[in-house]
Amino acid sequence: MDSREELERRVAQLEKQVSALKGGGPLPLRGIRKRASWGLGDIPFYDIALGPDLERGEARGHAKGIIAIGDVATGVVAFGGVSRGLIAFGGVSVGYACGGAGVGEHVVSATHRDPEAQEFFRRHGLAEFCGWR
pLDDT of 79-103, one tens digit each? Predict the structure, then answer.
């Protein structure tokens, strides 16, 4: 039989899930959270944060690492719906960027194709991520 503390923790978790469901939207998916145990100082080598994390009250994942993959991603190399980094891929990208709404000095986006950025992504085998070869 579970202890009182364990039951209270489980009830609190269920209350959060029920509260999220009351919004009338689709059922929340379980999010993914993975982080390297090593890196540079406090910055992990990689961080993956996709989807909601109901236990933390997060609607979307924010990954922060040298390599960051998430709904929102911040890193040297960032992949995400919103991404910021030296090299950034995503719907909204800031940096050496490739995305629908890329922002930066060297950008491949829906409205601008910087020749230097195109050559950079081509040279490093990343052109297909931008939707061209």
Answer: 999 999 999 998 888 888 888 888 8
Residue 30's pLDDT is 73
Task: Give φ, ψ of 74 to 5 degrees.
Answer: -130, 120
Q: How far apart are CA 57 and CA 68, in angstroms?
A: 20
Can you give the C-alpha Rg of the chain in angstroms?
19
Tokens 């040279």 -> residue: 123
| Domains of the chain, residue spans | 28-130
Q: Which of 48, 111, 40, 71 is nearest to 97 (CA)?
A: 111
5-9 long-range contacts (CB < 8 A, ≥24 apart) are none
Which residue from 77, 78, 105, 103 is spatially nearest to 92, judged by alpha carbons? 103
Q: How many CB atoms lie within 10 A of CB 116?
A: 11
Q: Give the Å distances, CA to CA, from 28 to 51, 92, 114.
A: 8, 24, 39
